[in-house]
Amino acid sequence: MKIKKENLADRFKKIVNKDRNKDALIFSNGKKITFDQLDHFSNMIIKKFFNKKKIHKRVCILSDKNELVYYIIIACIKAGKSYTVLDIEAPIFRNKKIIKTLYPALIFNITNKKIILKKKTEIINKNVLIKSLTNNNKDVKRLNIRVNSNTTAYIMFTSGSTGEPKGVSISHHNVLKFIDWSKKEYSFNKTEVFTNLNGLHFDNSIFDVFVSLFNGYTLIPLNKNELLDTNTVIKLFKKYRITNWFSVPSLIIYFLRFNNISIKKLPFVKRIIFGGEAFPKNLLKVLFNKVKNKINLYNVYGPTECTCICSSYLINKSDFSKKEMERYAPLGKKMITNFKYQILKDNRKKALVGEKGELILIGENVGKGYYNNMNETKKKFFSKIIQNKKIKTKFYRTGDIVYKDKLNKFIYFVARADNQVKFMGHRIELNEIEIVLKKNKNIKNCIVTFGKKNNIDEITAWIVSKKKLNNLNKTISKKLPNYMIPRKFNFIENFPINLNGKIDKFSLKKGYYD
Description:
26% strand, 4-stranded parallel beta sheet, 25 strands, alpha/beta
């Protein structure tokens, strides 16, 4: 089989050759890393820790945002390894599930947390890694490792309905197509400065890291604790002349609350791009009025399974008409380059314009499937030969219910077809929370719901138990990340039942949520 030449390693090599002395990374403490340094130290990691027998093995990284984690990511890309960044705030119980699924060749632990595993997986701690990089040998050269464009670049984990996180495999080819589209769509130029506001375990970070570093743009990483101080963050935006903001709406709303988003406070920003969850229209209008005509606002959509972004829509004045205020911002009239779509009804027939149905994404940016999980892959991914084409085309069932408006022909999101929700940018299977709760011997049954309470998104647990339980949030935090912990635990005697004898979730939620 002939190996295709197109890969991310070659793309990065071109960037380094062109912009060797340009700043690739600038941290909030002022520390700067050039593209030459990023290239050099990633080569040292390959030489020290990656041998040929492990070239196509997986690598896990437990770290916050520092220069080391970016060295490791670039090293993995060059060496043809697929990397997974673990959430440092997630309980070790959950991260161990991910590690068990991947069975990685190496784990880089750049934290003070201990990882104890039954299986023999090599764990490289922070001190060992730093020591290996202190020998600043200028003769370390890029290793000649052949990487297929179909090689998995990264594996990103999402919540699973069975209680087990699912790892989405995305190839070098997928990411390259995404990088090329982004540069063209947003007319990026060599003066761009990006932010990495999103967690590296979260798929929005793919836009931050790859679109910036693999186009030769400077990236400003900020950790979660740094984002809490909005005044300091805004000063960094001015100091480093940041041009791009990409985050979930929740973070933008947080900055709006402190009156820290405006043309004056973000003088160099050209674009604010948001996605990962729906932006409440009343608050989006506030943002639009603060930055209109000076900063472009883009609503983007895309499942982790389809390389971060599948649609991009420029917000404009017409989005705030009386009719439009009653629904979320549209996805747009079509998907981005490399994507086509279908809207299918329950019987798998194509929905007519105006009819609701499941969104099916089609094209070469659809990912490879779920790593080491063939059953779930078969449920969501499939391939077939489209008319007049000799090669198979990939399809992905998103589980998102949408419709195409009859009047403006825009695609609008309605709801999830399953028990999955988007909260603070994270895709969450409510079943996973229920499974953890039901392990408590005092809980007879429980249902987890999602809705708006006082105009704020809330995950709510409804519990039938033998006795009232205290500190449930503390108990389940040992097995679930913070963003999956219910905000409210409601104890009830019995669940309402519908005519089919099933738990009536509609009645449960009615009168509680807005």
